[in-house]
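Lab notebook, bench 4. Still working through the backlog of constructs that have no structural model yet. Next entry is a single chain of 134 residues. Request: give me the structure tokens for it.
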Amino acid sequence: MVLLIVDRLIKQGAVTQPIKTIGQSFFSFGFSLNSQGIFSLPLSNWWLVIFNLLIIVGLLVGLLKIWPLDRTWLTAGLLFLLVGGLSNFYDRLFWAGVVDYWHWFNFFSFNLADVYLIIGLSCLLRGIKQPYGS
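Model written out:
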């Protein structure tokens, strides 16, 4: 829950602040709205909302199935994916796109929820290799 709150607070700050650049366009912080899907897929926002909702439900089902088991990496991965997915899902519902606020080289924009998604995927991949009970 804390992870979700941190991302939401940073997004709120990004929406209300002008873009601030650090270095010569190397890194900047500020609001931008990503209305496209992952890898810039040109899908309508409502298809992305439905797709995100299905993924979140799938993550919850997966989490409930492994919860009683001692699968630390899988549990952590599913939780990070769930938090990142929920935050970006909220954006899609209320902003019609995902609020990004970190910009690298004026080329790549992302937010903390995206970092959670990458951490979650990494944990899942590690958990798949993890022997049961460790």
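Notes after review: Residues 62-128 form one domain. The helical segments are 2-16, 45-66, 72-95, 112-129. Flag for follow-up if needed.
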